[in-house]
Each structure stands twice: as structure tokens, then as C-alpha cells.
Amino acid sequence: MGRNPKEEKFFQGLLQEVIDFFELNDYRSYSLNQIHKAFAIRDRKTKEIYGDVLNRLASEGRLIRQEDGNFRFDNESFVVEGRVDHVNSRFAFIVVEGEGKDIWVATADLNNAKDGDRVRVQARKPSEKKKNDRPEGEVIEVIERGSSDVVGVIQVTPHYAFLIPDSKKIYEDIYVPRTEVMGANHLDKVIVEVTRWGSPGKKAEGRVIKVLGKAGENETEMHSILAEFGLPYEFPAEVENMAASINPTIPKEEIKKRRDMRKVLSFTIDPIDAKDFDDALSYEVLKNGNLEIGVHIADVSHYVKTGSLLDQEAYKRATSVYLVDRVVPMLPEKLSNGLCSLRPNEDKLTFSAVFEFDPNGVIVKEWFGRTVIHSDRRFAYEQAQELIEHTGEVTDSLEPVIKSLNQLAHKLRDARFAHGSVNFETAEVRFELDEDGKPIAVHPRVRKDAHKLIEEYMLLANKRVATYVHELKKTDPRNTMVYRVHEAPDPEKLQVFSTFAKKFGYQVTTEPKHVSKSFNALMESIEGKGEEHVLQSLAVRTMSKARYSTDAIGHFGLAFPFYSHFTSPIRRYPDVMTHRLLQHYLDGGVSPERAPLEIQCKHSSDREKLASDAERASIKYKQVEYMSLHEPQIFDGIITGVTEFGLFVEIGDTSCEGLVRMVDLNDDFYDLDKDNYRIVGKSNGRVFTFGDAVKVKVRDTNLAKRTIDLEMVGMRGAGAYANNRSRKRDMPRGARSSKVIPRGKRRR
């Protein structure tokens, strides 16, 4: 018989009291009678309730019932809250913030929790024999459901429909009544709102709330990726209207409040197809022979006032999203591409960091504040690079300026690496798309001096702004600031990487003080070698993820004790926060409370991860689409992952990654040698190892799931290969005019 709400509340209170009692006395066990005495229980009905309490706690695994019938506290178990990461159909991880290790949960023990749900989990510490293993557990309560909106392809029949989710982390179809399909056609991409979550023996049920279009069409797929990650692709009308109402004229009164730098040579250097220019450099040789270089950033906070509709929408988004073929901006176009964009030959309001350098490249003076500038030229990276590389007679008046800035950037970069900054150059790609958005080519993105020049001055401004605010107040607690932080690598991950690097003959120290120097030595040693990409990729995976915080714990990868994001307020909300805080302190303001800002930092970090996941999903989609458009051919690849179910292989310059399934290695039965990142044939002894160069061909592509199945053809240099057909990479049929779509800006 069920309890009424009052009785249930009383019962829950007893549960907590009893578990607290056992936890305080975790060195001994108690019988039911001893519990009655300990709690001074005399009446029969209350004794029965306490009996129910003990049985409930034992069934939940929070108490252990011994063979003699007594109960004791299970000090090997613990209850925590976390977020479900359903990595495959067999198991999930419960990600617990602040915990060293996630909790492994079998799918059968998820109790109908889904990916993204916040849950309470009963977990058990790993035994001493398995001290390196993760704790295991089971979900005992779903606290909060994740998004109820699911994107996928709908299959419509005369009487009912099913949604096949796009997400790789949702493993069950969703039932949709025929009356709830909202006019969607068979195999359309749609968004379904889950109206009833699944239970044992019953599928989840939902209704179509938006029809995105025909599956496979570029516009449909890009919108579905945004929807899958809960990212908007259009602004509310009231936000657009507010942006449209802003007067573009800069009042003379506003200019008088600022440092007027309109007569100082200024210019931007950006991707060739960029539309939002949020940073510019100025260059001036002073009378004393020193160089004054200004880093000028769009003054977004002048136009986006705290608490306004524009501000609320910008905070909600927190970042611009860079998909393969488009940018979904944080701010409406009037701001991002207009008022705040530092376009050439226009007066613009900026927030600046101005540095005076002596001939040795040492900063002798710095200034921070609001300015007004006038950009004299807009350079594409390629144009700036041409000036850097030019060796003949000077024909462009700005060539000496660009070369001078580049020489100083090299000095700044050398000093940064000397102080422990880690030199990672991660592989990036760009796509050539035809007019229908189909990929006709994939190219590796090459970073040259022009890219590194801009990056170096942005890093300098970000570092010095953070340091300035931190040092304004010499005693703790310091002034509250929004920092970009990056912890040192996890020691366990570092040890695993060090062990793996040794297999290639390289030494990587695990001593905290020497890790960055060791990593740089490794990157230099492997440059141009076959194992470069593999070791570099694994080294990146070893690193922690950068995030935003009000805790000044430093940035390990850059070796900066204090680092902020100041240079991209058009596309990152934390930069807007940094501008506001800096101006507040320049005006003599006192430090605000940290707690509200820390919440904003956490939100911005979470949104950045979503945007990054969506960006990767769009890249993966185009890679799969690109491979699907090619006739079968043999590709050179590198093994980049070794698992119990197969080998992940990355294909040459395209960076397309596919899976060679274990079941398709039909020449033998293979065992996984997890510690050595390899699989070994039981009979023939053939070995496939992480980092091996192999030859593969495409077996199958699945655009809906964004996966590529590969077939192993042979090891590179092994002679003839099966089906060794022409290796020409012809343009697929139907490809017409093309456009080059670059990736978004790098994140630090």
C-alpha cells in the first residue's frame, strides 16, 4: 500500500537519519533490534517502519546485509550526481564534475536514463586489485532530463511513424503517432519533442515540432546539426529589431572620452572570406626609436549594454558557431558584420592594449583603454604572407611594416616557448564545396607566418590584460576577473602517453616542472616523420581542456600565469565580460562578487563545448559525404585508434577517419592488446598497432550517423593490394563552380 505525501516525507527523513547513523559508526554492524534500541523505538508500528528503512537501504546497496542478518555501512559505495554520457549501446559513463574518474554504468543499469540526463548514481569504488579501473554503479534516480528535442530521420507508415535519431548516443527509435507527424514526409529530417520517455518494454513517444527538410540536402543537414546540439540558427525578431535601432553614427562626445588613434597606421589581417573583423593592429615608430604597437578590439560592450535584450541573447549563445559552410554569429549581423566590424576606411570604436617595445623586443610601457581608430587597409592572410616572403624591390608601402611586425612576433614566440609554452600544431582541414554544398575536395590547412603573427599579438594582449587586472590589487582576494584557464595534464594520462612514446624511441618526462619542455622536444623530434601525426594527436588528447573561470590558476599550454580572452568579443561572450571588468577597474571600481561571474564562466565553457561538438559534426558530415561521392579507390591511412571492436584509420591529407571493424579482418581472429595499443592475430601473429601506416578502401558510408566503414587492403610497402584500381581522385559528377570554405578561428 502506497504512502501519502506526508508519510513519504517522514520515511525519506528516516532513511537519511539511519544512513547517517551507520556512516558515523562504519566500523561495526547492527541487528534490527540494536537499531531499535539506538533510536529508542518501542512501539510496534514504528519498529516495522525502521525494518522497512533497513531493507530499503540494503536493496539500494547503501547498507550491506551480512550472512548473520546484521547490517553494516557500505563504505565501498557512494552516491553522487552526474551527467549521462551514453558512449555506446552497451554502457555509459556518468560524468561527475570534480571527480577524477567517470563512473561506468551498464546500459541495463541506466534505469531508462538517456544521454545528457542528470542522474543520481549508486557507485562502488574499484577494488585494490583493480585500482586503475573506473568505479562502477547504477542509476537510482533521474534528477533532470536533458533536452527533450531529438533530431533525426522520420520513417512514416500509413498508421504510425518512427524517428531514427541522428545522435550516435541515442540507441532506440522514438515512436510518433501518425497524427503527430506535422506533415512530414517519409525520410524527412525533423525535430521530435519527446512527450513520454521510454520504460521497460516501451519505446519513448514524441511528436514532430519542426520539419527541417529532405535528408541529405546541405541546408537541411546543417540545420539538423545545429538542432542536434541545441544551437539556434536565427535571432528572435525583437533582438534583430533592437540591433537595427542602434544609431551607427559615432557622437563627437563619445570620441572625446577616448584616446583618438585615427591618424596612426592601422590594418586588419583575417581570412580571405571573413566578414567580421574584431581585431586590428596599429604600428608607429616613436621619436625615441621604440615601436608602439596597438592591439585594437571591437568595443562590443559599448553597443551591447548589460541586461539588454542583445546582452541576454549574446549570453545565451555565448559563442559564434563555425560550421563547414557558415558562421552562426553570437550577435546580429548589424553588429557582427557592421557596427563592430573594424572595416577599412571607417571610424570604429575599439578597446585597446597599446605596447611600447624597445629594439630588443622588450615591453617598456603598456596602456589599456577605450579608443577610436580608422583602419587603413584590410589584408587577407595570403596577402600579408606574400609581403613577408617578398624579397625583391619594395612595391607596397606596408611591406616593411608587416615584416617588422613579423620579426617582433618571432621574438615573442621564441620567448614564449623558452618559458614553457607548448608548441602544438593541430591538423586542420578546409573544404571546397560546389554550389549545392557538396564537397569536391578536402585540403589540409597550412598555418604560415601571417597567421602566427596575428596570433602572437592576440596572445600578448590577452596575457597582459589578465596580468594587469590581477596585479592592480596586491593583496588577496584579488580583483575578480574572467580567466581562460588550462590545467596541467592528468598524471595518469601523461604516464600512459609517456609509455607509448617510448615504443617509438622517444622520452617524455612525467615530472610536472619539465613536462612542457619535454613535449616541445618531442614535437621537434618527430617533425616530418611518419609517427608525427599519431604522437601529436595522442599528445593533444593527453592535455586538459581549456575553460573559463574566475580562479587564476594559469594556462599550462601557454605557460602564462594569468591569461584572459580579450580579443574576440564579436564571437565570444567571455571577452565581453573581460572588457566590462577591465573598464570597471580602469574607472576605479571595486571588485564584484565572484559567484555570479563564475556561473557565467561555466555557462560559456559549456556553450563553447557544444559549439565545438557541432563544428566537428559538420566537418565529419562533409568528410563522410566526400568519401561517399568517390568511386572505390585505395587510400593511404594511419591507424589512430585501437579498440576491441576495430581499428580507426585516418586517411591521408583529408583527415577523414573511418573504422575497420574487427569482424571484417577475416584472415584471422584478433586479440586486443590494450596496453600496447595493438591487435594481434591468434594464428598468423599479424600485428596492427596504433600509428601503423596502412592501405584501406571505403566499404560503406552512413551520412545519417556520420560514419565511414573501411576495409583493410594491406600494409604500406607490402607489394600488390587487392582491388588496386586507379588512385586518381577525380571530381565527382555534377560538381560545377566551387567555393572554398575555411574553418573557424583557432581557440586557445
UniProtKB/TrEMBL annotation:
SUPFAM superfamilies: Nucleic acid-binding proteins. It comes from the Bacteria. InterPro entries: CSD, CSD2, NA-bd_OB-fold, RNase_B_OB_dom, RNase_II/R, RNase_II/R_CS, RNase_II/RNase_R, RNase_R. Residues 632-713 form the S1 motif domain. It holds the Pfam family RNB. Its EC number is 3.1.13.1. CDD domains: S1_RNase_R. Keywords: Cytoplasm, Exonuclease, Hydrolase, Nuclease, RNA-binding. It is found in: Cytoplasm. It catalyses: Exonucleolytic cleavage in the 3'- to 5'-direction to yield nucleoside 5'-phosphates. It is an enzyme of class 3 (hydrolase). Residues 721-748 are annotated as: Disordered. Belongs to the RNR ribonuclease family. RNase R subfamily. HAMAP family: RNase_R. 3'-5' exoribonuclease that releases 5'-nucleoside monophosphates and is involved in maturation of structured RNAs. This is Ribonuclease R. The gene is rnr.
